[in-house]
TrEMBL record:
Pfam families: Exo_endo_phos (PF03372). The record marks 249 as: Interaction with DNA substrate. Keywords: Hydrolase, Magnesium, Manganese, Metal-binding. It comes from Treponema denticola H-22. This is Exodeoxyribonuclease III (Xth).
Length: 256
């Protein structure tokens, strides 16, 4: 069995100071996909870039934004991939939005979907990204690999996926256009693995730092592991690790 964890850390240097490497060593996943690193590799300690931990060494790969301290993705993996790449589209690569590790039979994608921002200021950019990532996932399948699209989608798909759906209908992350894309994605041969196993409400992965939202569990489920439908039978478990602190997001875990 293989375990994959995905986590928006809201700054890898900040979370490193909160025990990130100890957590990674203890949790010991086969692959960790990270989003919102907010750092270039050159800014990081070698403990992070080399990740030679007591329970085993990780190969660590980074896709950083051109803008300092912004966005960025990373992948830590016990097994060396056949190749590591980005999406190959400058408008998204310049923000470090996607990093892909290709293995035999499966490609694991660490994706940090854009935030559409107040008033939908970046909604067009986000929808362009969504269209591109769906096309990219399809192309991976055409090459013969299964797809695991991990990351912070910055979308709560359905009313069950956030605490206050009614009052958030015009807010970024729950806009009709964003939810419509999730409908399109999940009807195009991809499955939200968490919802495949769990139909319960009040299961979230992000909480505002304000109003003691996490303590009250007033949150949103923004982080996903989605897979192509033909790979779904191999998935054993998809869970939320909501006890893990250090960011405004918590990690999500997939076992296959």
């Amino acid at each position: 069995m293989n375990s994959i964890i995905s986590w928006n850390v809201n700054g890898i240097r900040a979370v490193e100071k909160k025990g990130f490497l100890d957590w990674l060593n203890t949790e010991n996943p086969d692959v960790l996909c990270v989003q919102e690193t907010k750092a270039a590799k050159a800014q990081l300690n070698k403990e992070l870039t080399e990740a030679d931990l007591p329970n085993g060494k990780y190969f660590a790969y980074w896709a950083s934004a051109k803008k300092a301290g912004y966005s960025g993705t990373a992948i830590f993996t016990k097994k060396e991939p056949l190749q590591v790449r980005t999406m190959g589209l400058k408008e998204f690569d310049d923000e470090g939005r996607v990093l892909v590790a290709d293995f035999d039979k499966v490609s694991i994608i660490s994706a940090y979907f854009p935030n559409s921002q107040d008033g939908g200021a970046r909604l067009d950019y986000k929808l362009d990204f969504c269209a591109a990532i769906l096309e990219f996932c399809d192309s991976i399948q055409e090459e013969g690999n299964n797809v695991i699209l991990c990351g912070d989608y910055n979308i709560a798909h359905k009313p069950i996926d956030l605490a206050n759906p009614k009052s958030n209908e015009k807010n970024p992350g729950y806009l009709p256009e964003e939810r419509a894309w999730m409908d399109e994605f999940t009807s195009s041969g991809y499955t939200d693995t968490f919802r495949h196993f769990c139909k319960e409400p009040a299961k979230y992965t992000w909480w505002s730092y304000r109003f003691r939202a996490r303590e009250k569990n007033i949150g949103w489920r923004l982080d996903y592991h989605c897979v192509n439908d033909s790979f779904l039978a191999k998935i054993k478990e998809s869970i939320i690790l909501d006890g893990v602190m250090g960011s405004d997001h918590c990690p999500v875990k997939l076992i296959y």
